[in-house]
Amino acid sequence: MPSFYHETHTIFGTHKSKILQWIFSIDHKRIAILYIGVLFTLFFCAVGAALTMRAELFFPGQQLIQAQTYNQLFTFHGVTMIFLFIVPGIAAALGNFILPLMLGARDLSFPRLNLLSWWLYILGVVIALSSLVTGAGFADTGWTFYAPYSIRTDSHVLSTLIAAFILGLSSILTGLNFVVTIHRLRAPGMDFFKMPLFVWGLYATAWIQVLATPVIGITLILVILERTLGIGVFDPSKGGDPILFEHLFWIYSHPAVYLMILPGFGIISEVLPVFTRRTIFGYRSIAISSASIAGIGYLVWGHHMFTSGISDIARLIFSFLTFLVAIPTGVKIFDWLATLYKGSIVLATPMLWILGSIINFTVGGLTGLTLGALGPDIHLHDTYFVVAHFHYTILGGVVFMFIGGMHYWYPKITGAMYDEVKGRVAFGLVFVGFNMLWFPMFIAGFLGNPRRYFDYLPTFTIYHQLSGIGALLVALGLLLVLYTFYKGLKEGKEAGPNPWRGTTLEWHIPSPPPLENFSKIPYVDFDPYEYEDGEPLVQLDENFRRIR
User: Fold this and answer.
1) Where in the sequence is the domain holding 309, given as residue range(s)?
2) Are the C-beta atoms of 186 and 274 separated by less than 8 Å?
3) Per the database record, which ranges form the Cytochrome oxidase subunit I profile domain (predicted)?
4) How confident is the model at residue 89, as a pLDDT?
5) Is residue 8 included in any domain, yes or no?
6) What's the sign of the alpha-carbon dihedral 180, 186, 190, 193?
7) Quick one: what percent of the chain has pLDDT higher than 70?
């Protein structure tokens, strides 16, 4: 196994215990691997909750669980997926591992702060799941904690609120670390427009983490104070305003959607040039659009509240801004399609996941515009149409991108290759199952099937049964992904430094990287994606200087 799995710096020096070497390590690569392990453990727990709900919904009426249990499973699934997996996801895991490598740095700017972010994340996870261990019962509010129900419910919502606050603090510290690292630790010669596009995605995400996350932190503290001290901020019976909670929650949570997706967009922009064997089309427009999405994303929270009683003028403004944010997103998609045009496309497993994510996210984005229009949203807002749109964006988009990035950088992280056949079969199962799972929900929602309900009218049975079959295919495909990674780690052939013929800096060092990544800091006098006749144009010598 690679050296950094056995020897590394820790905050207390060298430890004899391998467990202590891991959990006290300040090596960004080890911290990233710790994140990956916990993130995907929680992901599969949330998938289990979703499968249980799908089994309950396979027929109308009560089948397996009671309504209160359904609400708790729904909350567990949402809180785990959003706050414990998706929000920290790509940035905390792949970002932690890859960012210094792409910048030509030996670590993040603040390694100990990085370790503190990890420990805060673990603390938040433990507190969030504590109610399950103690038997107190998980919260039943849904992942949005809408007031006044979150204030009045007898379920164990307090620990969930405290956990979300701590997770927000972890996110802020990670964002600060990334911003400083990108500004101060870029290799000599690497200006902002020589940075890889994954770095641009992480940079835009980091600013959202720093600027938007305090809003949700304050909001959660107010709910905690209202539950414990009885002050009336959101409870209308005490003079509070529940609409204020919605404003504060979505001022964070809609930028958080882009916090989730922008690193995924960066993964797409890394994978496409490598597996089309050509320079990416529109590098600068993709980079600038990432910053534009992060900026405009702060201004569109009100489209979640078209049915909440906000003024007609506010509705019009937020509807316009929702359509406006689609422009930089559309720029990315057209640039990606232009990169594919006449490229020498290699349908390796990472490329399949990325192509699938583009397809799914496009569907999610276009249906988002439908919901951004005032008239259709009044009819569709509280139906399964919104749930399908959300999952096409987050599961079909972000999670597909995440898994595609895991396949792409798997050789760099582990030093081994996985079985391509198993990888492609797993993708096929997940892609077909995903669309069978969620596309029928567009139809059910359009026909009026309300979301978040324990039961439904018999007329919607066929849509839920198709979704149930699709959910089973998705679960089988995800398990095959996990098995493929495990077998690759145990039996995979040696990957070498650059199995995909990539051009960014991480592909110019051994796989997996040594402890401090680079023996000498590179000098970057080249663009990140340079191909000529299908081959990488740039080669570096042993001193990381360009020789071709």
Assistant:
1) 27-536
2) no
3) 16-525
4) 86
5) no
6) negative
7) 96
Q: Is residue 149 part of a domain?
A: yes
Q: What CATH number should be reported for the domain holding residue 105?
A: 1.20.210.10
Residue with tokens 């391509």: 420
Residue partners of 172: CB distance under 8 A and separation at least 6: 209, 210, 213, 214
Q: Is 63 among the domain residues?
A: yes
User: Which tokens go with 525?
Assistant: 């006098």
Q: Which residue has the tokens 């002050």?
A: 231
More confident residue, 544 or 44: 44
* Cα→Cα distances 141→75, 145, 196, 294, Å: 6, 5, 40, 29
Whether 332 is covered by a domain: the verdict is yes
- C-alpha span between 129 and 269 (Å, rounded): 36
- Counted domains in the chain: 1
Alpha carbon separation from 8 to 27, 120, 257, 272 (Å, rounded): 7, 21, 35, 34
Question: How does pLDDT run across 74-99, given as a tens digit for each residue?
Answer: 999 999 999 999 998 899 999 999 99
By the 8 A CB rule, do 285 and 218 touch?
no
DSSP letter for 447, please: T
How far apart (Å, rounded) are the C-alpha atoms in residues 114 and 35? 11
